[in-house]
Amino acid sequence: MPTEKPIDFTSMPDSRGHFGPYGGLFVSETLMEPLDELRVAYEKYMQDETFLAELDADLANYVGRPSPVYHAERLSRENGGAQIYLKREDLNHTGAHKVNNTIGQALLAKRMGKQRIIAETGAGQHGVATATVAARLGLECVVYMGEVDIARQEANVYRMKLLGAKVESVSSGSKTLKDALNEAMRDWVTNVDNTFYIIGTVAGPHPYPAMVRDFQAIIGREAREQMQRQTGALPDALVACVGGGSNAIGLFYPFLNDETVKIYGVEAAGDGLDTGRHAAPLCAGTPGVLHGNRTYLMEDANGQIIETHSISAGLDYPGVGPEHAWLKDIGRANYVAATDDEALAAFHTLTRVEGIIPALESSHAIAYALKLAREMDQGQTILVNLSGRGDKDMHTVAALDGLKI
Amino acid sequence: MSRISQRFKQLEEKSRVALIPFVTAGDPGPEVTVPLMHAMVEAGADIIELGVPFSDPMADGPVIQRASERALEHGVSLHDVLAMVSQFRESDADTPVVLMGYLNPVEVMGYETFALAAQNAGVDGLLTVDLPPEEADDLLAAIKPKDIDPIFLLAPTSSDERMQRICDAASGFVYYVSVKGITGSSHMAIGEVAAKTAQIRKHTALPVGVGFGINSAEKAQAVAQVGDAVIVGSVLVKRMEELSDRPDEIAPAIAQILTAMRQAIDLV
């Protein structure tokens, strides 16, 4: 790590989980000791050669890592401007980046002697990835999912059930991801002795934002090498979608100290940032405290969390990981947004031009990358995190075409 | 001396255990709350805990979640809750009022603005369930000079080290959460509560309140033998929900439950 730089962007969080003013540990007292126990275990095992070797072997042989970096030549040519490269997290086992983290946390759960796993899920990708590792390790698994999300992600609900997980429908509040997280926290506080809570994103109380980032940073570490091997240089820009922000931080983190690499996180603009119907706290929210950490939130003037909207269930969340909040404030990363319509258009474009069907979440990143590429030179490169595949979104997209599948 | 400390001193002189009811401000409608507060005092409440509605009440069970949702349907904000306390103070200068809720509404209002407004309204204590003492320095610096007691939770999982840290930060009283779980849980074990309250007393001379899962006069009586205050919430809020379409009946119904608890506690 170069020491002459004014800021080491990889130095966060501090010992109590703060990323500048963000992050921290805002939970009820009952969870303070369990979170400390988790922090101690996480710090210990991230230095433990046997644990890391087991993690690496699982990522290679079970997940299928490394995932390729693919030069989308035809897309780049037809779009004009910079060359677009895709980090193919969609090719991972279970179809998204989520499994990188669930593998890690499940191994940790096993080391800590916890027999029961719980998780929250929005699009269902994290739920499936959790149910998958729980099946493999023979752990009991309960996944909390909002009623609204259950309706729009039926296929993933069925996958979780096939994998032996119990899917608990959450009907409080807005009946989406944030409420699923509330309910999972309530379960955890009640069953804390035997239960490990696998949070799927880089939000929540310390140590989750740092721990999930560390498990996801394999994306950026691989991509950094792959880009240098394929192009002889680092990319000029990184683009990833941001809901809670785990795929984005996973890609960004190993590049944070590479000053020449511009970084763009793409939030869900839903119907448009000016309509209020969106899920873009970094672009249009304000700081507050929710789900165990201080970060940018979608909230009203009285501090109540407001309902978000996005075509993509995985981005439909009113908060965002605290590290992103910090990166925004210090200006190391830029946060932008893509609307439902822009994401859908990008979904169709990538599908037809490259034969790759992206998840609606990842389509937001593609949409912005296409726009950005046109403002750049042909000799420049953009690396996009293709965080998941679109199989789970078939019926959502088909419904827009008037089809029921 | 804060109004809360004075109240506990008076109770100690009379060898009386405090009864602290919790209701969510603005549930089922804003007009219910202030008359209900007076009725609770008349029925034997020593301190009132007023819930500040929040959209994401992570530490609460379904009963108090729904109370928050009902209040929020009427747009009840922290400003409105403070106005209710002001109105209550017009005819009750003695009964301490503790606001209980989550940090974000206070955070968004701003700590200093909140502290001043709360003092002016006559608020005596603040319990933000998602704010451990480690993150509380700025808020404490704002409310302590305004004589607002920070009330902190202690849990079955709290170690001696944490108990000490929490007791050092708290004033007024400390609040022992009698179950691992959310509000309205029903599996409180009185033996464990007795052991934990004794353990807490090694760390502080502050009064120890006990809450979460006290849903009957019998449990209230059992808790009164080991705690300095019996805190009841979900059992009241559940009754209010049943009567939400007959708001006139709420105050007498809640008074009836509290009277029974008061009698049971006073037998101790």
Automatic annotation (TrEMBL), chain B:
- Which HAMAP family does the protein's record reference? Trp_synth_alpha
Which GO terms fall under molecular function for this chain's record?
Answer: tryptophan synthase activity
According to the record's subunit comment, the protein's assembly and interactions are: Tetramer of two alpha and two beta chains.
Q: Which InterPro entries match?
A: Aldolase_TIM (IPR013785), RibuloseP-bd_barrel (IPR011060), Trp_synthase_alpha_AS (IPR018204), Trp_synthase_suA (IPR002028)
Catalytic activity field: (1S,2R)-1-C-(indol-3-yl)glycerol 3-phosphate + L-serine = D-glyceraldehyde 3-phosphate + L-tryptophan + H2O
According to its UniProt entry, the function of this protein is described as: The alpha subunit is responsible for the aldol cleavage of indoleglycerol phosphate to indole and glyceraldehyde 3-phosphate.
Database matches in Pfam families: Trp_syntA
Q: In which pathway does it act?
A: Amino-acid biosynthesis; L-tryptophan biosynthesis; L-tryptophan from chorismate: step 5/5
Lineage top rank: taxon: Bacteria
Q: Identify one Gene Ontology CC term for this UniProt entry.
A: cytosol
Query: What EC numbers are recorded for this enzyme?
Result: 4.2.1.20
- This chain's source organism reads Sedimenticola selenatireducens
Spell out the catalytic residues: E49 (proton acceptor), D60 (proton acceptor)
- According to UniProt, the name of this protein is Tryptophan synthase alpha chain
Q: Which UniProt keywords apply?
A: Amino-acid biosynthesis, Aromatic amino acid biosynthesis, Lyase, Tryptophan biosynthesis
Provide the family line. Belongs to the TrpA family.
